[in-house]
Amino acid sequence: IPAVVRESGLIDSWAGWVTLGNDGWTDLLGDQILTGDFSNKVACRNCQGDSCGFCFENDDNNGSGYIYENCSGCSDLSCSLCQNKFQHGVGLDQIKNNLVGWAWNANNLGGSGFGWLHFDEDVEPKPYLQTVDGNVYSRIGINGESAPQGHYNATFMLQSGGSISKFYSEYEYTQNPDWKIENYDQLNLPDAENNYTSSISKIDFPGLYAGQYGEVSIIQNQAGLPSSTPLSGKVYYHQGDLSLYSSQYFRSGSGAVDGSGTVIVNGDLTVESNSFYLDTGLASWKNLPSVGFIVKGDLYISSNVTELSGNFYVEGTVYTGSSANQLVVNGIMVAKDFEFQRSYLQNKEPAEKIIYDKRIFMNIPPGFDDIAKGLPKWQF
Question: What angle do CA 199, 290, 157 make, to 5 degrees?
């Protein structure tokens, strides 16, 4: 029997369990019944704008009870009105490309059969990456572990020069599939080969070194970075590899003192302890602590680090460090390559969580002006 996938995603067909012979026939879509039901429908799939392809009566097990089709008045995977109602059913989640719902195997008289068959995503999700309130760009491709139901890998745009696999945007899933763009051939990052100018952004190294964006301070180690005072709008330059071996605090400015600053590392950067923003007594956005790191080599994050604050531009690879600890990054990360190595997985939370905290937009670190132009804009 050929399977018929309705426009909504519901599968109007039967499935056969070969080894059971005739007793293996399983009904994938139950009898249609009159709706007369104006309660909220939940765990909805295949949503676009304020409409969804199908929803469930209950959100248990990511969807159970009656299944509804062609729903409207939808928001946050919940809909108020649906055209069709069925006793049970299985649907194709067209975004995640998996089957969800319930099928029934038994004759109508309650005789032979194994009963209910549940279709769902993985019961135990794998460690995954999540970005919050920002876009994700990749020149070659994006291939990750999908977030569990009700969670997402990203908030807004996914854009890649290659394919995107098992990585989902909340807006793509709940609003419009157009929030995911594959095979986009104009994504290049600024590097030495293109004179630090690309379709995404530009970094003016000569201007940074010459003090055009702020006073340049040469540092020998982490002790040269202010931790008890503001960054004061300066550019901090370190020749060679740099290690941040103790906790680092980025503090607010006051009056005319700028809370932003940029750290340039002409080598690898190793982060061995947590770093934090301390916001106190802000008189203007210029006082807001906001730091940018430009790393000419690789970024190594030690396994004990759980919180990292800053906006990172890395010419090499970012290594998050093999650890069962969750890593939270407050800022943005741009790099040639990423190695996400964390194995944290509790309460369906991500192993690595990158939060676009908008500091780079509200108080731009020296030399990050062009990078900030390509970020989502917010109104306050």
Answer: 40
